[in-house]
């Protein structure tokens, strides 16, 4: 192993011991050095280079480290108003730059651990077995290809665009209070994102692998995940548009304290979703077996599409619930605007408010709640059952039926009343002795 110790202060000669093809005397400079390189491609010796910075107002335009047998650059900073144009780190590095500004940083192979202060770096591009980047300043573009990658943003740090690409590794993003990343694109591998306080990533794109994401008090604008099993915890700041899907029927978990503006799942994916105080705008699940649990916040639309889905509302108002094909279950704990059941054999359990339920195709079981409920039937509604129908409070609405009440067939069958209309039936469970009359119907 070859060890080289070099000190940069803007004026003192720099040790440049014979290194392979780059044999030369020590470097003399005065505030500006166009090129510094430790490079050996001639044999298999490992180079351990220790570079320390001090002084002020100096620049090294290009600093590079590489050896055929491997190298590690350890850089410590103590300068002020010091600059490096390009820092090429070779195979491994341990870099702490508190005050020195570097425009471009690159490295490949091995292990890289980079800590940057408040300065601005235009591009950081690193690969290898393990990559760590910690910053308090700004990075315009962060491009990571390590097997495992860790990014930590402290204070008012800022990353304009970050990309990570790995086939099997784990990439972690710790966005601490004050940190702000505009766009993150993750290709392959597993991704963990943790946002704390006002720290946030505005737009996240994740492809393949898994995604485990937690947000906090700041608003996140967009999340797009494809072929990525997702576990998402949304904090008080809420999230804008969420799109998740795959071609392989993946299952996802979402919990939300804050507001979700628009969420849409695609293909045959399934989701278990629990909402909190923030409520939601539009929620559309895919064709898997989904479960949506509401909270105390207002929800504009829940649309579960196909699959055997479960919707349980909270105390918050839900404007519209629509289910798709499959055997769905809807249970209300708060007030709603309207519920439209899909084509399967569905179950509906009303809440304390006045519910408006449209039975779709299939043989549905519907139970009203404490309010005055409206149950809508029509051609193709199937053979449905009503439980706990309250004559005088609840109402059965039959669409496109000619002849009104007089053309209905109402019979007592055991403990039940059976109403026949236009090829469909309504069985009023345990109401065989009840008087059902014209006031219990409306024809629309």
Automatic annotation (TrEMBL):
Domain of life: Bacteria
Chain positions covered by the region annotation Disordered: 1-21
Gene Ontology molecular functions: calcium ion binding
Compositional bias ranges of the Acidic residues kind: 12-21
InterPro entries xref list: Hemolysn_Ca-bd, Serralysin-like_metalloprot_C
Pfam families hit by this protein: HemolysinCabind
Protein name (Swiss-Prot/TrEMBL): Calcium-binding protein
Species of the source: Neptunicoccus cionae
